[in-house]
Amino acid sequence: MSSVREEGKDRIIFVSKEDHATPSSAELVEEDPDDPYEERGLILPSGEINWNCPCLGGMASGPCGTEFKDAFSCFHYSKEEVKGSECMEQFVAMQECMQRYPELYPQEDDKVQEKQSSETDQTSQDSASAGTSGANSTSATERDSDGTQPNTEDSPTT
């Protein structure tokens, strides 16, 4: 006999050995080939852009989603010899929007500067650690040269 327990948004179902022995009565629903929400890649069978495609990485939503859709649509449907050459205005608008939200859309230059900055910080930390360990080794050398021997358990005490 199975039991069901609700925990917040989750539903936990415990089944017995007998529950597993009987065939399932679940009915599978046939997939609708025309379902617009079905993940089918970037371009739907109709030739339209699938704005829900995970390949867009959420660019179609957010503060610059409209500008992104305008620019991407212009490029996708472009019939020019140099594809998208008539879309400069839309791409400039998208870029200007993204520059207003640098925390959401970091520029390549920003990424390079952040990487260099973190590498410089790490080098500084490594140098500081080396300086500290060097000071420790100097004191150990000075200690050894003063002629006193450390007391060990094997040494006879007098």
In short:
By secondary structure, the protein is mainly α.
How would you explain this protein's 3D organization?
A hairpin with a 2-residue loop joins strand 1 (3-7) and strand 2. The chain has 158 residues and is mainly alpha-helical. It has helices spanning 17-21, 65-76, 88-99, 108-145; strands spanning 3-7, 10-14. It has a two-stranded antiparallel ribbon.
Range of helix content: 40-55%
Helical run tally: 4
Low-confidence stretches: 133-146
- Indicate the structural class: mainly alpha
- The arrangement of helices and strands along the chain is EEHHHH
Question: What is the rounded distance between the termini?
Answer: 80 Å
* Gyration radius from CA atoms, angstroms: 33 Å
Q: What shape does the CA trace take? A: flat
Give a short account of the largest sheet.
2 strands, antiparallel
Q: pLDDT average, as an integer?
A: 76
Largest sheet, spatial ordering of strands: 1-2
